[in-house]
């Protein structure tokens, strides 16, 4: 084995194993209001009410939470300018909503600078496959049937610590949905990879699978962020 190969192997062994989790790959079905504990565990570790966790808890490091950045990393020339501007404004609004929950989090907008949570405005149709971005991690990934955006966050398997996140948006996202969808994807990049199928929450929770109308973090949504990132 060459010296370079030996060094590469040593470095790969020294680095912690990393996994990726795509939000909304798992849905929790329920009917009616959940207790705060069941709601939080459903979102944070994909536990059905009264059941066991099916995912580990994933969080950004405490040292990172005080300065977590969000920015547009890429915009396809085919992505409509009006929608791009609306996404930027929605990202700023989402940051404001998250910062107001009382959780131990402080997000800021990074603009076009490298960020922790990167937004990719792609030339992908609804439900299509992402192509042509500078991210090899995103290219080739499907948004899924009827899906206009998808977040993937990356985490260390030994610690559950999130290291970075990518959010891909379809060129076909509708203006009326942008504010809610952007808020949902950024919230999910904080360690939540479950959507909720429950008619009770359609108009009240950002985690609802069946609606794109929620634009504020209140009630059990805000409680979930505080539970995941307890105030110091």
TrEMBL record:
Keywords: Signal. Pfam families: DUF2927. The keyword Signal applies. The keyword Nucleus does not apply. Residues 1-19 form the signal peptide. It comes from the Bacteria. InterPro entries: DUF2927 (IPR021323), MetalloPept_cat_dom_sf (IPR024079). Gene3D superfamilies: Collagenase (Catalytic Domain). This is DUF2927 domain-containing protein. The lineage of its organism: Bacteria, Pseudomonadati, Pseudomonadota, Alphaproteobacteria, Rhodobacterales.
